[in-house]
Input
Amino acid sequence: AACACTAAHGDDAKPAASAVLTPYERLLPAPSSVRAQGPGYAFGAGTVIRTGGPGTPEEVRRIGELLAEQLRGPTGLPLPVADGPGGPGDGDGVRLRLDGGARELGEEGYRLLTTPAGVTLTARTPAGLFHAGQTLRQLLPVRGAGTVPGGTVTDTPRFAYRGAMIDIARHHFPVEQAKRYVDQLAQYKMNTLHVHLTDDQGWRIAIDSWPRLAEYGGASEVGGGPGGSWSKDDYRELVSYAADRYVTVVPEIDMPGHVNAAQAAYGELTCDGKAPARYTGVKVGFSSLCVGKERTYAFVDDVLGELAALTPGPYLHIGGDEAHSTPAADYAAFMDRAQAVVARHGKTVMAWHQLASARPAPGAVLQYWGHDRTPAAEKAAVAAAARAGHRVVLSPADHAYLDMKYDRRTGPGLAWAGYVPAPRAYSWNPGSYLPDVPEPAVLGVEAPLWTETISTRADWELMAFPRLLSLAELAWSPATALDWPAHRARLAAQGPRLDAQDITYYRAPEVPWP
Ligand code: TNX
Output
């Protein structure tokens, strides 16, 4: 069969037309293994989604309901959800099956088996079943019922942490936009949403013990707009919406720098006790918490305590980047205490990789955001931390930053790490990217979207798509499946799906969009 490999002779080959790809070849992220075999299953008016026999957890039923909801629109079929394993004469369809014994499928893997009788999704965990459902969506046509080709997909992720970050501090976005992004992430098997909740320009999360943080510190944003903030119920709603889609929320309170909004709300958080004006520009590195003041740590404890109570996920991200106004010794002393607070509230520390040059606490996860020109010593500090047992999430700015312009014509975005055209987002290997940080030390990949220049949903999506899909594939697919000519054909095949969901995307010239 014709496949994306027609273009596998290098970047000069003419991009393969997406029309020649089979549904299996179109899957994005590319699965670990596919065996096409025999005739497929035709979806029709009688298709039922079955969520297992007696003893099947309620969670599986929920996954079935959500999958049915996601398939009804595109297929136009009723797709009722039924309990019970189904039997002869029960009609055919999709079966969701938990198999605790399928050890080879790991924490998030699945098997999708298609015969003329139906499609069986098998996983060891509910997360795996959810991912299987997302694969099934892609095996059906963009519109209409269609036939899932016969065969077996067996698929497990390369990295456990597959994330995206949104910056709702530079520009405020409503929780609905974050939920929309969760849907988009989950569709491509990403499982983490990191929310940058605070920065110099705005404090976006309600903290009961320090109400002026959100009330006053939230009422500003880059460019002087009104800003805004999320109530605790907003945040809870996002967390539960994400959990239903097997996405974990990682909240970030950026410290000890990036705190002007907090200090504008509470002058006691500065060393001289005077509240600065709110800030609506785009400079970084000018603010710092007062490291020598005990009141600072009451603040840290209250904020992280309330956030920990709202957050079921394991991580609290405490920032730690660009603390240019905090002397190195103060920085290390502050981060020691902040990390202890995270631990006291039962969470694991995540921080930007600058923490590597201080004293990362046992278990702390470092998020690397350097680039090709980052000094070797800075990379070496991260490698040393990896040797000491810390795991690293990779967000190299010149590959993974979704706020970098594609090229000089891109409207929104920055270019301090250079332009990131679509192929550049894809063309790096997370398993060997940082010198002396071997693959087992890499927890995963995250694609941050900073919003100094982004204030609308259209611009957000334009910057994220298609590069987010490339990063999703780097995070999920086996290294052996990574190949730009094949990948760009898969990207092209996603174009009509993005269109059908009204997702704005950049028609990158390197991709053979239909
Ligand atoms: C660097 S990346 C920052 C952010 C900016 C971003 C813009 C990082 C940890 N800090 O404060 O928003 O660049 O690309």
